[in-house]
Amino acid sequence: MTDVVELRPTDGSTEPLATHVQPRAHAGQGLARDVCPGSLIPAHPLDQLPAPGSPGAPPPAAPAARLRSPVFEAHLVSIIVSKARTPFDYEISGPAIELAVETVSQLYPHIRFTHVYRNGSNRCTPDEAGYLAAEEHCRRPVTAFIGPGCSEALTSLGRMAAKWNVPVLTSGGSSQLLGDKKVFSTLTRLSHTMDDLKQLIRRVFIKYQWRNIAVIYNEEWSYSRLLGTALRRRFDGPDRLHIEHYPFRADASPNKIRQLLTSAAEQARVFLLAAQGDSIRSLLLEAHSLGFNNGEFAFLTVEPFRSKTLGNFGWHREGDSEDRNEVTTPVVTGLYDSVIIYAWAVDQVLRSGGDPSNGVQVTRVIWNNTISGGISGIIKINSYGDRESDYTVTDINPSTGDWEEVAHWSGAEGVLIEVHDVWWPGGGAAPANQPLCGYAGDRGPCRPLEVTDPLVLSSLIVLLGLVALSVANVFLKPIGVSKLVVSKEMLLEFKQMRETSHDNLLYLHGALQFAGRVYFVTDYCSKGSLGHFLRNSPLKLDWSLRRAIVFDIVSGLDYLHHSEIGSHGSLTSSDCLLNGRFTVKLTGFGMGSVRAQMPPNVRPEFIAQYVTISERLLWVAPENLRDQEKPRVATGDIFSFAIILQEIATRTMPYGHMTPLEPPDVLEILQRVRAGTTPPFRPEVSRDLVDEAHFELMRQCWDELPHQRPTAAALKRQLTRTVKASPNLLDALLERMERYVSNLEDLVEEKSAAFLEEKRRSEELLYQVLPRYIAEQLKQGKQVRPENFESVTVYFSDIVEFTALSAISTPIQVVDMLNGLYTLFDRIISNYDVYKVETIGDAYMVVSGLPVRNGNLHAKHICLMALSLLEAIKQFHVPHDPEKTLQLRAGIHTGPVAAGVVGLKMPRYCLFGDTVNTASRMETTGHAMNIHISSGTRDLLNSFGGFQAVPRGGVVMKGKGVMKTFWLLGYNQDVNTRDVIEDLGPVESE
């Protein structure tokens, strides 16, 4: 068996550089064949390849000879499989590599690039890749390997390249084995890796408190095998996960798939599916038939990138309504970027005086760096030579059946940012890690409430009795669980909450199970949360009312900090509720045993409704951002209070100077706050917005050092001196309500003025769309019926040679020109009793005599208007070509028409009849800078006197025969009409 390799230049010429025919070693013979002329490479285990210069090593490269040349010779070799039905196939990725080589050849003329592709057959085997790499390295010193993409081939080539000190850049190789950079010291991976994917999966499992996971993977697919291997060992750390593996084959029968799913359900309720798209669809269909869509199970899958080779991960299939096109995969773009990044690194080494043939030098330039200019955007390479990958967590929207983003994972920061709630079955919460009765249902009856202690039972009855008594004044807040397991600890917490009574704390009556959901029962606060009120209410807040709100919050915190609860722990402006009397009620504290049963995605939104989980971190103190396991104490509440002070001052979100806040912006803010720089990063608040006392309060409360922040008690004493409190509660309440009523009166007055102004604008717009008479009838609710008009005068005009002018102008220039011209025309026609019907392109249509009849004056007004327009266009210059003027061609005819309003959306007042067609013909058969009028119009003009018109002669009109027409020359009210006989002969209608 022989292997034919044809080396061609990258400049596109057809002459090969060299042709080499070499016997190929059998796959089972390893590297024992003679692949270098005149030398023999002994067989070695792949992890024991001889170092350069040692006995048995291939001939070393000659870097010194290359460096003496003013042009560095960069020889790239790609060993990529072909026709293997993988995303790495050379039929897909080859053109990208060739294009990249052409690009860098132009960018770096001081580097001469050559590229050789070796066919790795249709299998990703370490023997084949190792043999081809050794053969190319012996034939000519290789400066870099691009690819291969599959992990199996990289294990051998990566070890050999490290021994040879040659860089390897690839968009594949996601195996954890390749992450050992002590062995693969010159390997750079530009695609996702199993290590960062494992971090994301771990974070999702911890987020939902899932510890028992069943990994169901296709044992025939290499990628799913790698994923299974990555998750085979239990995760380290305090949140240890128990992983069970269930392999299957793509051709498994439905019965075998059901058996596999049933077996997995005995160990877990969370299934991670690692397979191609069609196999995943089959698994889910069988899971549906087993009733696994009852809300107890969660199914997750990994789609590394969209590709036909991975299959369709959508629910629709061919013949359904969805049609998804193939997109360029990160594998292809990664191989392109591999060449771009290598060329950039070589250039950097050359500029620094280094040796570009030293693979370690080139590799270290790339590692721990951020590189732009590639086809896939900005690329962050970590200190281990792997790209920091971001991921999107998607879920199927049950309303549309499409995948939609619910979370974003930043690989560089290791942060999961929630974008949207997951659509769990039935609108409920995330499935629990383990059912109440166990995976096999052998843990006794599924009773969510099982209380046997008489004292505990009586406490519960009293608790629920209080709810029933005050139901008219309470609010039911769902807490995200369908059942609540009541314990003695929980009942003691409820008792503690009932005893925690303060004017500025929201009273929690208890919990209620209703319609399959559990609710907290609290006092009702009609104004909603403080954060929502500040950002959305049009009410003005004077500083006396703002200080009262601040005092309420501090009073509630002071009570909490001296109670058994100790601190709030997660204070935000959404946890500050406003009742009908504008009193602040703090909520969202205590009840730790209930929170433990709440899904993680609901827990931070204990009572709040207007902030997402990721945004809630904006209120968290920096010491808790650095260590999220650290207990949240009173000093953290003071920092959160400082952020609320900023909201009260600016009426924006926290850090409102960076509005609008997108997930990347939130991440950037959290990073800067967590960094603890000097000065620390805090919201920007203009001193013009706040008084000095409020600003100083913020500065003290968001101090970087927790012990430097004032206590709630100290804040209360400080605010008592600045807040002018009334001598008794009733007076204080009346004073606050008076300010509120006064505020409402000002708001009503402003809204009324705004309404009247908007009404005027709407009417003005209506008068521009329809004749005023018609518009008034429509405003009064009257029906506008079509109407016949015995005699009106219709005007048409257009711009001469408009088509030629448009051809040499841009669309924007044409729009600007027409807008300027017709704005001028509109000002002129407002002086006459006419109505502009429409403008279409350069055509301008005007009528007089309707909808309000004006006798025979319609002919006079239209003709006077036409003369004015003719004079005006002489002074108009084309905006984008001031040297050029425009010419107008106009036609006028008088006769009967029918008119009426047509359409509901964008209604138009339209004219119908032969008069309209004839007026249009008068325009098209006219001449530039002339007004062409019919004999009917001319007869009416004679009755007024002063109009000067000359006969044009007979003009042939379609459907009319020969018509006698005239040129309108001008108007002089002191001169009688005179005719000048000038027969120009018949003119054919266009």
Automatic annotation (TrEMBL):
Q: What class of enzyme is it?
A: lyase
Composition bias (Pro residues) maps to 52-62
| Record-linked Gene3D superfamilies | 3.40.50.2300, Nucleotide cyclase, Transferase(Phosphotransferase) domain 1
One example of a Gene Ontology biological process annotation:
intracellular signal transduction
**Domain Guanylate cyclase intervals:** 793-923
UniProt entry keywords in alphabetical sequence: cGMP biosynthesis, Glycoprotein, GTP-binding, Lyase, Membrane, Nucleotide-binding, Receptor, Signal, Transmembrane, Transmembrane helix
Q: Name one GO molecular function term.
A: adenylate cyclase activity
E.C. number(s) listed in UniProt: 4.6.1.2
In this entry, which stretches build a coiled coil?
none
**Compartment(s):** Membrane
Top-level division of the source organism's lineage: Eukaryota
For the Protein kinase domain, which residue ranges apply? Answer: 449-729
Q: Where is this region: Disordered?
A: 42-65
Reaction equations catalysed: GTP = 3',5'-cyclic GMP + diphosphate
Q: How does it sit in the membrane?
A: Single-pass type I membrane protein
Annotated Gene Ontology cellular component terms: plasma membrane
User: In terms of one coarse class, where is the protein primarily found?
Assistant: membrane
Against CDD domains, the record matches this protein to: CHD, PBP1_NPR_GC-like
Q: Member of which family? A: Belongs to the adenylyl cyclase class-4/guanylyl cyclase family.
Protein name as catalogued:
Guanylate cyclase
Q: Which organism is it from?
A: Amphibalanus amphitrite (Striped barnacle)
